[in-house]
Amino acid sequence: MSEGKTVVVSGGTYGIGRGIVLELARRGWNVVAFGLDGRQPGSAAEGGVEGTRQALAEAGLSGDVLEGDCSNAADVERAMAHAVSSFGRVDAAVNNAAIRPTGTILETDEATFDRVIAVNLKGQFLVCKAAIAHMKEAGGGAIVNIGSGAGWGKEGLLAYGASKGGVFALSSALAYDHLADRIRINVVVPGPQTASGMVEIMANQGPLPKVATASGRTNQPRDIANAVAFLLSEEAAQISGTVLDVGAFSHQGGVGQPRA
Question: Which residue among the candidates 87, 160, 168, 249 is catalytic per the annotation?
Answer without folding.
Answer: 160
